[in-house]
Amino acid sequence: MDVAVITPTLRAKDYKSEVAPVWCPGCGHFAVLSAVTKALAHLKLAKERVAMISGIGCSSRLPAYVDAYGFHGIHGRALPLASGLKAARPDLTVIVAGGDGDGFSIGGNHFLHACRRNMDLTYIVMDNEVYGMTKGQASPTTQPDWAKSKLTPHGTGMRPFLPTAIALAAGASFIARGFAGDPNGLTKLLVEAIEHPGFAFLQVLSPCQTFRPEQKEWKHLVHPADTAPTDDPVEAARFIQADDGMALGLFYVRRLPVWQPQNQPTATPADLEREFVL
Amino acid sequence: MTERSTLDGGAALAITGSGGSGAVTAGLILLAAVGRAGYYGLLGRSAGPQIRGGESAAMLRFGPRPIECMGDRFDLLVGLDWENVARFADELPLDRNSLILTDAQAGPIPEILVRSGAQVRSLPWKALADGQTEGRVNMVALGMVGAMLGLPPDALEAGARATLGGKGGRVLAHSLECIRSGYAAADAQSSSVPSSALAPAVARWNISGNEAAGLGGVRGGVRFVAAYPITPASEVLEWLAPRLELLGGSLLQAEDELASINMIIGSSFGGVPSLTATSGPGLSLMVEGLGLAVASETPVVVVNVQRGGPSTGIPTKSEQSDLNIALYGLHGDAPHLVLAALGIRDCIDTVAWAVGLAEHLQTVAIVLSDQILGQSRAIVDPPGDRAFGAGETPHLQRLIARDADPDHRRYRPTPDGVSPMALPGLAGGMYTGEGLEHGPGGAPSSRAIDHAEQLDKRLRKLTGFDYGPGWAEIRGEGDHVLLTWGSAAGPVFEAAERLRDSGTPTRAIALRLLAPLQREALLEAIGSAGSILVVEQNQTAQCFAYLHSQQALPAHARSYARPGPLPLRPGEIMRALTESAEREET
Question: What is this model's ipTM?
Fold first, then answer.
């Protein structure tokens, strides 16, 4: 990772933009925004060397609230946009942020391939098991019997998507889970994720006060992971499969080849044209 | 109304054969050979749907002047064998003056070809090939046909070396032996074409439309490509992938077209001119991303190599039926550029120009090519250094914010609608690219005043720009106008020329810039023409309808539109114009 050092006086609040968040009072995403700015300050990253990329949804509004470069793209396509940016500009710290619907439903295919491409990106998914911006529909991580949405009055009837298991299977090289109610732990994980050379996947349990008020209970359900991070995918798989979805911490981290073109020009278009000459 | 090939020397021939017969290889060698003999040439190919092998046809037309389309008929049909060739019969128009060359040992000629009345000669290719080590019928036939066409033996051998050079010395050596054997056995009396071409002053190029599109991209400054493979666009990507590396850029094979379009938005946001290439189904998937590029004012170029549609359609055959999606596919009011390449060589200039325009105007440019341009090769004059002012000229570059301006506002309205774009790394230029409607600083806004201001800015920067003379190619004068776009320009140019030669003064106008339409210039070019025929290769006259919707056509203009996959031929366009003009008079 290319870390440009700036004046150490920059504090977390200096990384906040002047745009006021659209989030509901009590939304977990405020804590994620705060952790992002703390992590950037901790790493002393120059604002102009950071790009925050997102798709669509409540959590995808985050880039506009950070005083850095950013791109608020279309639903589900944050990872490809970020991958193109990083491929073209390896000097930037590229952080992708979004929600469970954006990342695991409409953008699910990109999640798989971003994991296996292993570019040096940080991917924060603020998971609240619901679509908030469209007013409370089931998402891929919603439990099958959650029947509060008019769209699925009997629940989805489908087992939830397991983000950490999928990330491992798809080849991610850093898999962690944080909680919006644990700002210090979350900031620490974010710092590690940004520093990790490769695709760092950070699932953040981020309660939705409006459509999932029962998630207030999460603060009683979360617990630290009972093992240290492993670099063994078999061990990680065993842990993830036994996980209740509430364990917090870094589960798996492994040095894997990072996909990043680094070509230096050795020819001009005029050189290439010679192949066509009879 | 005779065809040019028989007017000025040259010929049109087709080589057919089943999978493994080497019909296409023979065609490639012959194209390279006619180029070295001083001719221009055009090589098209037709293949079945098989993944590997299967019957195929190589169609070559050559002559002393640039060849921009296939002709109305073939002088020669070289049948290496006849398995499944009937599938191509409608692509191989023959008549009583045509000659079918085959080896009687290849079996009976399909009835549908015999019915054309073409003469037939059987030649002992198999016997000659059997006399050679690892003898190949296609190479023996190639040598014999080359001799009959009056091509010098060195040109044939050089063509073979250029085409087979990568296959190893042994294959090349045996092939050369076969070519020589066929050449020596040819009956000199049967030569049908005079060998009169002159060596050109400047070395010509042998290039395909898809290679030309890739070259146009890098000439325009493209250094990043993300794309997903698709027929018939993949050769653009295959040409670009290793060459972008040499230029210090890269190509990323994406997981799908939804990814590829968003990847190039990301790279372009990072400041690197970016492009993707696709065909109809891929363009359909990219449309939402294109709207994002328009709204966020991020320059991107899409080369859409059209094929038969809708849906999966006819992947290996040409059609000009994606004009509507290119013009209208985006939701909302999303002004963008639509261009069309007018020929194989023009793929270079049109794509380079599109890159320059997209960069300068911070918008989307869709370039329409198609299978018949993309997958055909031609011997052409080398292109000029600049395409209509594209490339490195300052006025077609991106306007980049250079200084840390505390008052930098990414989407600040300017007189011409183009605002300086800060690139990541510039302190003080920070902003969030937005697909949401936004105010001048980029913050999301649903206010009517911001919407009106930003819509106007994005439209004004396109409509107020001076595109210069590149908007169309216009040839000839006349009371009749043949108006067309894209690859149909080739047969239209030839039809207009032959009409003029036969006493029907006809002007050809081929649109290269379709959106924004240069309406005033087009109306001026049409002038007071007595008859106007809009020619295009699709079922529903998409361009004709578009021009009418823009009030860019006089009321008496008529349409000649028909779908693919059969190529438009000059003769049918001439007949269509004559019939249309006669209807006007009655």
Answer: 0.97
